[in-house]
Amino acid sequence: MQRILVAGITGAGKTTMAQALAARLQLPFHEMDSLVFTGPGWAVDPDFHRQVAKIAATPAWIFDSFGYPEVRDLLWTNADTVIWLDYPRALVMPRVLRRSLRRTLLRERVFGGNVETLSSWFSGDHPAWSSWTQHAARRAEIDRRTTDPRFAPLNVIHLRSPREATAWLGGRPHPTAD
């Protein structure tokens, strides 16, 4: 486990899991949304593909993403492990709604200094709408990819609940002090 994708739907806890695992395994963590959105107005970095390709070519990394379409195959081809947080919609929706509501009300700055606004809640690509409408399709796509010969041999760790994820993560080694 040196090149790891933490995959799942918005609100599953990909970033939290990826950061915890990166600390445990002492591997570099890369937040996908921070690489994509680099400026105000949710501007997409024109160098995004090259940046991800450069990271993917290194011997060790963890991404908190299923992968944006333009880099998805690149990441899945280079990964050796996929940790699939396959949680039910009933679990992820309250999470994503709470997070987006907090970000909106507190005007928290996220990727590229952007903020979620009240008007963004009515956009189809708002995290809440995305999580709701893409849940089944994302699950089907991840399932298909985990068995696709193009991406073999992938070590797939399929976690179906936060309890399973916590137990699995608890079995990972802790860093030792030098």
Automatic annotation (TrEMBL):
Residues 4-58 form the ATPase AAA-type core domain. InterPro entries: ATPase_AAA_core (IPR003959), Cytidylate_Kinase-2 (IPR052922), P-loop_NTPase (IPR027417). The keyword Methyltransferase does not apply. Pfam families: AAA. Gene3D superfamilies: P-loop containing nucleotide triphosphate hydrolases. Keywords: Kinase, Transferase. Coiled coil: none annotated. It comes from the Bacteria. The keyword Thylakoid does not apply. One of its GO terms (molecular function) is kinase activity. This is Adenylate kinase family enzyme.
